[in-house]
Fold this protein.
Amino acid sequence: MTGDNNNPNTERENRILDAASSLVLHYGYDKTTVSDIAHQARVSKGAIYLHWKSKDELFQALIWREVWSYAETWISQLEAAPDGGSLFSMYKYSLAGLHAHPFMRALFTRDRRILGDFLTRQEAELIRQKFIMGKDFLRLMQQAGALREDADPDVVAYLMSSIAYGLVKVDEIVSPDEAPDFLRVIEETADMLNRAYGTPDEASQAAGKQIIRQVTEAAKMQFTPSQQSNHEQKKE
Amino acid sequence: MTGDNNNPNTERENRILDAASSLVLHYGYDKTTVSDIAHQARVSKGAIYLHWKSKDELFQALIWREVWSYAETWISQLEAAPDGGSLFSMYKYSLAGLHAHPFMRALFTRDRRILGDFLTRQEAELIRQKFIMGKDFLRLMQQAGALREDADPDVVAYLMSSIAYGLVKVDEIVSPDEAPDFLRVIEETADMLNRAYGTPDEASQAAGKQIIRQVTEAAKMQFTPSQQSNHEQKKE
DNA sequence: GTATGACCAAAAATGCATATCTGGTCAAAT
DNA sequence: ATTTGACCAGATATGCATTTTTGGTCATAC
């Protein structure tokens, strides 16, 4: 989880981010002070400002780290899974990953209790982008033959965004002993989507995997560490 | 909308509820004062307390009225529609109705801006109940042969709750020019669910309509006007 | 070259006295 | 028998002075 290929942070940075993560998940962004983080990470407050310009940028860095750790689990699960190339296994594993990743979950559902003020700034942007990416993704998938030809990619993308959002949210509302097992529901949902919109043949499976890798690479380009805020470029 | 069969309110009560409805939708429960309502309904404040014990009970009555008006449109649409007995047309028309009914929408999505403090009291109860009702309903449907035998009614109910919730919520987040037409998505969703879980034959269509009527009657029994808060029983 | 924590200004929380608002009542008017 | 609106107590909002907290800095120590 820490020290993956795509984690550009030093060990100490990661310790600080670990502290920030656990505190923010517990107390929320607003109630988590920089001193708290420093204390829990066993560094001085000054040290934190050696790594990031502000609390905001520290949090930004935390978000990227978590997103990456989440994305990497997702990709590696897809690569390993027998149905990894089918259109909606992508969906299945991303949701299953969300289920096990409290921080991503808070991001995904725009949990105000955790993201606090920070949210109001980025607000709907996260979901919006996710939806837009979903549309592009599904269009690619359709070109590659992994999405049924008669399906409207925009509608399917919208539907997928909604289902994912709804599943996570409703799971928070309905008590566990009333609701069926969440992972089973996800599995069932992915199956259903696959039957409705997927193309089952070998070729599309391969095409699917191809696209997923492609999209991941593109995303990596877009969010290189330069976007991250190690304001002192470490080695000048 | 006012004066339906199942609306047990007098004309003046309805005028007051109309006022309350429009004010609450605009300013939210907390910021809507009883005096405001009285003024807009062209009655005195005292008159309002002739009909309901408290602001809370007035609002409770409003909720029931709106729920009924919504439910009645829903039922009548189902009765009229050619696919009215198919399992997921029920879903389609309920969501389409939601789309056109701001108050129900606020209830359904537990919109804090509108429901204010009132929400914290009933909180998750609304969604929970809806989910439980959904489970029972789908079990009945399955017994009657209108839900595919190999489907797990609990999972399907959960899925439907989630999709409905997600669709409405995500529609609020994604800008209209990016999102596909909402009603088209609903139509598509209902179709998909129908293909995945429905039974297409004539007999199940009839059974479906039968069940829907049955459930509606049961619900009417459960929420008779006595539950409503005309605290002075009008005629003793 | 690194790391620290006392220090600072700005912001947020607290306490409190005063003013306003609001749900609910009831004597009086119709 | 109805309906009203002035009236009330409790809740909420406002203004303001004081205290505490917090993000961020930097002279000093290692």
